[in-house]
């Protein structure tokens, strides 16, 4: 739900969007609103600032707050209804460029890595110090994972509708490794696997590592994977697995509804095609309740659940987990073969952090932050980019998917921006086809600074220039 | 080398082996030896105890120490001169059995994992506490590895004849992952790769992960890989890589001489077949100087060096490294694809431990211990097992390779021992063929206890019984 001032801001924003307050209207004074919402004056002031950040209000000195609709109510990207054929996966050069050292000196709008300001640095340090004092416990092989870590994960899984025991959980080096282990457990090289389109590049890389062919399924920017598209693919191709980021999928931030998750699960179970679910953004929902994973609706033990703490506690821990279900023996064997076990110290530290309640406290502020940050970035894109641009409305996480006006190449914009030390992720990275060449992914989770603001404005100018060509 | 009492013990042992003192002779009194060696009386007493442990002396109350030759001077295993054909690798079930939870309650003679008593627990704890206080440094992606870690590794590599910079080093989750990344960099699925025979099971598993075929090259128990065997294989098959544990190879403890390493390197460079070198036991030499790796003789940038701290500092850190040379771009890409980076905290902790000199101090005592422990285990096997048994003389590390009398199945012994809660590694695990079925590998690095002593005696009895069948 978020904190009080944010709830007030949401309600005011709804009133603006519904036209109760219109462009140029002066909002009632703070005392009036304070009484109206039954909150303190300082809460109202915080709500004002929040709406100002989101682009819905402007402050005029000595006059109060006035409604300013975001420059244009920029639409969501459309879903591309394409039909693909299975193809082998080969890496895009640019994917590696994005993680190269030079990137660290650029304006970081490319990678989907949480900003250091929003990591629970001090709290996890306390837990790591606690872990370091465990002596021998930090040094032995943690295969299939530290008991304390797996117990904490089992508790969290139960809370989101997936009742499992610690024995059902395998610790991994992040969700990326979990997805690869899942693919190895259920496929052979050359098999065909269905993924969202646009797709998280890490999933395409996982398919490449295992030597698989991919079929891309059209994906709606807010509803997620097209079930109709998946049905067609199931009829046409002998799929061996389907990999889906069910909650706040990267790059579009789509969240499948419970109803659609249920349909997805039952459709794949009926076809005897395992679902590999990546829930890495599940904890970073912007509003409402923690969305359930598809695994919560899995009656046939046909869903392999994968997740990690790389988008929340820290990417540097390299700590994830999976629930392989009936594929546990195979997943364990592959884990043992590729690197034996996951490092012990991060597992002990995270188990302590979870047990102490630090993670839940951290999530409350992180969700609030990411919600506002992506909203602000969305407004900034709407202001700076030309008409014809569409931007996703992510329901969680911190990335935005920008569809540029027809004919503008995201790759061109990426290269020109890069030359000016602005790093964005070009749409080509998110598919094996060229169909997202007119798209960009932006990291909307950074603290809002003059540098970021200028970078977004400059990107908009570059798109304008590219349009004119 | 080693400490003083151990040098005295070595010299006395040499005198016994050369026949200066014979079976049943009484050694000169402690005062005489103290003067003779120019050491204190307590040093002489420690040397006596060491030789008693090694099986060369027995104490008789009030009479002093008497020479007792080990029951039999057990020979080394013979080298099997076989010719193999390339075959796909598939895992032996028993390999996974060995890492199963039940194993923890058994007498641990199977796994090649260092015993907790000989890990630098307190020192690494200090370094981990130091690392935990680094704050943000512990939380960001360490790709391709923490600078401080790679700098320390570069210094150590230079000291063993491999001058590299931190940029030449890639941090990995142990040597197992490094070997897989190296194989991915230089092979395609289906390619043929040469390995030692018997081979470390982890290397066979790495080949299986990458989908390769293996050709096994005969290996001498003290001289290592047969260069003649390799030459034949190079003539006959289109090898794409050769994986060799050059120093104290697991399971036999063989060390290739510098001369043979040079030949290996130049033979493979001439054939344009990359050498993947696993030097994980290099720091655990029993006598003399730190042996150089083959990489030290690599003029053609044809050797990919892999190592880790899993046999020394701790297996639970999951921390290794590789020097991919001209294959760096490919190795980096594969590392990024499989799990993005190696956990930051272990890298910071180990960098601090190395920088403070703790690792070198630790190694001095660990080497001494493993040397005496394997010697003692060797004597115990010699006493308990029937004639016709052969045992390796490892020059480093802590495992022993036992060749049972002809016709005795190591797998039978393994299964019967397992039923009595004694865990050993059956010879079948170390090959894709059945040619080492009459072998066992024993972990000789445990502290010597009554339990271990009884277990070895019981193993000997089981082998006697199997002979009688």
UniProtKB/TrEMBL annotation, chains A, B:
Any one Pfam family match given in the protein's UniProt record, by short name: GntR
Boundaries of every HTH gntR-type domain copy: 2-70
GO molecular function, one term: DNA-binding transcription factor activity
CDD domains: AAT_like, WHTH_GntR
Keyword Transcription in annotation: yes
SUPFAM superfamilies hit by this protein: PLP-dependent transferases, Winged helix' DNA-binding domain
InterPro entries hit by this protein: Aminotransferase_I/II_large (IPR004839), HTH_trans_reg/aminotransferase (IPR051446), PyrdxlP-dep_Trfase (IPR015424), PyrdxlP-dep_Trfase_major (IPR015421), PyrdxlP-dep_Trfase_small (IPR015422), Tscrpt_reg_HTH_GntR (IPR000524), WH-like_DNA-bd_sf (IPR036388), WH_DNA-bd_sf (IPR036390)
UniProt superkingdom: Bacteria
The entry's keywords: Aminotransferase, DNA-binding, Pyridoxal phosphate, Transcription, Transcription regulation, Transferase
Keyword Aminoacyl-tRNA synthetase: no
Family: In the C-terminal section; belongs to the class-I pyridoxal-phosphate-dependent aminotransferase family.
Official protein name in the record: DNA-binding transcriptional regulator, MocR family, contains an aminotransferase domain
Taxon lineage: Bacteria, Pseudomonadati, Pseudomonadota, Gammaproteobacteria, Pseudomonadales
